[in-house]
Amino acid sequence: MEIFTRAYDHPDSAKLIADLQQVFVVRYGEADHTPVDAAQFAAPRGHFVVGYLDGVPVACGGWRAHDVADDPIRPGDAEIKRMYTVDAVRGRGLSRRVLAVLEDAARAAGRTRVVLETGQRQPEAIRLYETSGYARIDNFGVYRHHPESLCYAKEL
């Protein structure tokens, strides 16, 4: 897989994000309602990537900076968002590669910790994060009080 930096609103990014939103609809009955602005994923305060196999976009993910304390969010955090791999190529380690690229980019941008939110109905995501060194933290953001929300962090 080749991984390229892309704008959050690049057509390939947008297609994968739309596909991910449909996964949320199937699993949770609705799309993710977290407020997201494409500009949040632009350098130097963010980063977004798309992975390609034979020129076809198959995976994506990004991070956006947080610099205001809002327990458990700390200044210096980078929040991972929109991690997704298409079903046809799952189980090949592609999400793990995207995650590593995002962590490296966050570290290079001076971020000190990576945080993220996922849900109980996403066992493959939970497995990815837990086997990549992420530990549970208190919930944050839009889903702070949602019973199926799971939040994680990893020190960089």
Measured as a percent range, the helix fraction is 25-40%
- Computed over alpha carbons, the radius of gyration is 14 Å
Helix/strand-derived category reads alpha+beta
Q: Would you tell me which CATH topology applies?
A: Aminopeptidase
* Distance linking N and C termini: 24 Å
- Assign the CATH architecture: 3-Layer(aba) Sandwich
Low-confidence stretches: none
Number of helices: 3
Can you say what the CATH homologous superfamily is?
Gcn5-related N-acetyltransferase (GNAT)
- Percent of residues in β-strands: 25-35%
Number of strands: 7
Q: Which CATH class applies here?
A: Alpha Beta
Shape category: globular
Main sheet overview: 7 strands, mixed
How is the largest sheet built, in terms of strand order? 1-2-3-4-5-7-6
Helix-strand pattern? EHEEEHEHEE
Oligomer: single chain
What is shown here, in short?
This protein has 156 residues and is an alpha+beta fold.
Kindly describe this structure.
The chain contains three helices and seven strands; from the N terminus they run E-H-E-E-E-H-E-H-E-E. By secondary structure, the protein is α+β, with helices and mostly antiparallel strands. It has a single domain (2-155), classed as 3-Layer(aba) Sandwich (Aminopeptidase), CATH 3.40.630. It has a seven-stranded mixed sheet with strand order 1-2-3-4-5-7-6, with helices on both faces. Strand 2 (46-53) and strand 3 form a beta hairpin.
